[in-house]
Design a protein that fits this description.
By secondary structure, the chain is of the alpha/beta class. It has 10 helices and 21 strands.
Length: about 400
């Protein structure tokens, strides 16, 4: 199902004309001069905390959300009534792309509150005409019970929390789940496979960041599963070299940069997301014509440097979850007990530590200690998973 086919399937020529018109109206910038404009960064939002970058009076804003602040001061985002409406449309598109429609039961286990996940998908599901179960996060055994008792067909939560819920599902055959809309944290194809096996559904990626709107900036479709469609009528996306800022060609990994074309309260020009991914404009079997983002491979500020070796946590995850006998739960502990950094990889499963250590060293050129812990030892997240404990 396509929620807004007149927009989601417009020709590329029509889309580019619409983008140019909206860019001109919102920022007085011509489309062919966009690359000449300066970037906006998270530091700009933090420096203007809390409302210094608002472009409308605060009394015209009817909602406030904020980032978690895990990497510094939280960024505060305000929404006008129109901002919330476009956000609901974007999230409705995501749920429709997962096979949802009027009457579909959607179980939302993202956190509600200042975090954008829960309310964003909630209003999107209602906008589509779905029946919403606003479970929020927490009380994980009850989540599994509600999925079975209420017959949810689509589950919305973080990938790590989907795995935590799966730990409490005694009989997946009792569930009516057919799709999941998972995001808010980086995850790999191996995690996708683990979720699909544990919950017997098709796992789809949804991407967003609170500074731009929240979840719904892009989302995968159940027909394609080859990247998340960016809602380009609302968000103009670029991929640039993280160091030089120069554009990179489609298919090449770069830092994703977004310009909001329709937001009223907090429009942002060329916002550097910090997320690393690539873009494709090849046709998709679903019929949507929007550009697609490949899975985010890491963040510019997430890269670990261990004894001179650069590595992203997602690379370690790919190695770990390709090994038989490991559970899809792990944690990376970085310490500096002396002059050199040390990495300890904590895992669960029926496996010896030496083969895991050897695989990591062979694949990444990185030596690490490996600790095999009893089942349930690694904390399960109810929101964004904390994969890295940096104690340096």
């Amino acid at each position: 199902m396509i929620f807004q086919p007149e927009l989601e399937t417009m020709s590329r020529d029509e889309l580019e004309r619409l983008q140019a018109e909206r860019l001109r109206e919102r920022f007085d910038v011509e489309r062919n001069a966009l690359h000449e404009q300066p970037f906006t960064t998270k530091s700009d939002l933090r420096d203007a905390y809390p409302f210094g970058l608002l472009r409308v009076p605060l009394d015209e804003c009817i909602r406030i959300h904020a980032s978690s602040g895990t990497r510094g001061k939280a960024t505060v985002v305000a929404y006008t009534r129109n901002d919330l409406a476009l956000w609901a449309d974007c999230c409705a598109r995501a749920i429709a792309a997962a096979g949802g429609g009027p009457g579909t039961i959607v179980h939302i286990a993202y956190g509600y509150g200042l975090f954008t996940g829960g309310l964003g998908l909630h209003y999107g599901a209602e906008r589509l005409g779905c029946t919403v179960v606003p479970a929020s996060s927490g009380n994980t055994p009850r989540q599994a019970q509600l999925l079975a008792d209420l017959g949810a067909e689509i589950l919305c939560c973080t990938p790590s929390y989907a795995l935590a819920i799966a730990d409490h599902v005694e009989d997946p055959a009792r569930l009516r789940l057919r799709a999941g809309v998972f995001g808010a944290e980086p995850w790999t194809e191996q995690i996708r496979g683990a979720i699909e096996e544990a919950l017997n559904l098709t796992a789809l990626d949804i991407y967003g960041l609170s500074e731009i709107v929240g979840p719904g900036v892009s989302s995968e479709c159940i027909e394609g599963l080859r990247g998340a469609h960016v809602n380009e009528d609302h968000f103009l996306v670029e991929a640039v070299d993280p160091d030089s800022g120069a554009p990179v060609p489609d298919g090449e990994v770069g830092e994703l940069v977004f310009t909001t074309l329709t937001k009223e309260a907090l429009p942002l020009l060329r916002y550097r997301s910090g997320d690393l991914g690539s873009l494709s404009r090849e046709p998709c079997p679903c019929g949507r014509t929007f550009a697609r983002m490949a899975r985010v491979v890491g963040r510019t500020d997430d890269m670990l440097i261990i004894r001179g070796v650069n590595v992203f946590p997602s690379e370690i995850e790919r190695v770990l979850l390709a090994l038989p006998g490991l559970e899809p739960h792990y944690q990376l502990v970085v310490e500096r007990p002396g002059r050199l950094d040390e990495l300890t990889v904590q895992i669960e499963g029926v496996v010896e530590s030496d083969p895991v250590r050897e695989q990591l060293e062979h694949a990444l050129g990185l030596s690490a200690r490996v600790e095999v812990l009893p089942a349930g030892s690694i904390p399960r997240s109810e929101g964004k998973a904390l994969r890295v404990l940096d104690k340096r």
